[in-house]
Amino acid sequence: MSIGQGAIKVTFAYPSFGGGYADSSPRLTIDGIEQPVRAWGSHVLPVAAGPHTLRILVDTPGGDSFGLAEAPVTVGLGDQVAVDYRAPRFHGARGRIRVKR
Fold this sequence. Notes:
Blueprint: E1 5-13, E2 25-30, E3 33-34, E4 41-48, E5 50-59, E6 65-75, E7 80-86, E8 96-100
Parallel strand pairs: 1-7
Antiparallel strand pairs: 1-4, 2-3, 2-5, 5-6, 7-8
């Protein structure tokens, strides 16, 4: 981590019976900037210390997006904040973000 930075560790998950999720991928923006995350699981992203806004969707192969979830996150200097995203059980429903403190 560079001086003045922290990190956000995002874990993307979908329901255990979600066979339809195999061909989909999460899409993450931090403060409106698309992040290079295209796989389920955990990813650590360096960010500047301070407040941020996360926005997560699920992209499908057909170009349809669903599962929107948004949350504010504040990252302290040198800290790593853990965030869990859970995709919805049903297409068209909202996802959930949980920020761990």
